């Protein structure tokens, strides 16, 4: 009798535990989100909303992997941190090759805001940089919502307009950016597709 009663109690506890774990919404299940999304993502493709000549070779293209060679290395990556040793963190960082233009006159670095006409004497340098943002998932895990921690910079380390989760958990990130080109500074929409290459951050 005691054994049967003990089995019933254990069965009830197991059932309640399962129901409680099943009731966690997918967007709040930190361990499952960590296994599925935490890590670093490399660039698969990157396209601009109009043809650009960013590498200043005289030919314009929407394929930014051809126009910005720095996008082809692992320094230009996206990082999602779902948790750390201290608990859940949900940090989004998109390391992008920011342009720094040496104009050799007065203020030597283009700040990204001013209008700048093409000049063959200008020296273009790149630095892969990112500003960390908070993020969350929508209910069906089809999209990531990125929010600024403080005031977001609209020129450097820009916050994405949107982030969509596609097949095989690839991330499609849409940004608006100002880019120095052979046609001068252009403001364009850039769509970049990323895939995870490591869970290590």
From TrEMBL:
The record's keywords, sorted A to Z, are:
Signal
Domain of life assignment: Bacteria
Fetch the PROSITE patterns from UniProt: PROKAR_LIPOPROTEIN
Question: Which residues belong to the signal peptide in this entry?
Answer: 1-21
Could you identify this protein by its name? Answer: Uncharacterized protein
């Amino acid at each position: 009798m005691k054994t049967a009663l003990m089995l019933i109690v254990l069965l009830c506890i197991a059932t309640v535990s399962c129901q409680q774990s099943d009731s966690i919404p997918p967007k709040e299940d930190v361990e499952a989100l960590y296994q599925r999304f935490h890590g670093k993502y490399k660039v698969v493709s990157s396209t601009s909303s109009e043809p650009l000549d960013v590498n200043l070779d005289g030919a314009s293209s929407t394929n930014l992997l051809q126009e910005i060679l720095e996008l082809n290395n692992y320094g230009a990556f996206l990082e999602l941190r779902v948790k750390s040793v201290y608990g859940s963190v949900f940090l989004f960082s998109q390391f992008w090759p920011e342009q720094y233009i040496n104009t050799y006159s007065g203020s030597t670095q283009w700040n990204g805001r001013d209008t700048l006409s093409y000049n063959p004497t200008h020296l273009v340098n790149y630095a892969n940089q990112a500003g960390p943002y908070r993020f969350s998932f929508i209910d069906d895990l089809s999209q990531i919502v990125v929010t600024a921690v403080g005031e977001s910079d609209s020129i450097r380390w820009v916050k994405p307009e949107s982030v969509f989760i596609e097949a095989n958990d690839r991330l499609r990130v849409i940004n608006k950016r100002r880019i120095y080109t052979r046609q001068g500074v252009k403001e364009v929409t850039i769509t970049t597709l990323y895939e995870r290459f490591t869970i290590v951050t």
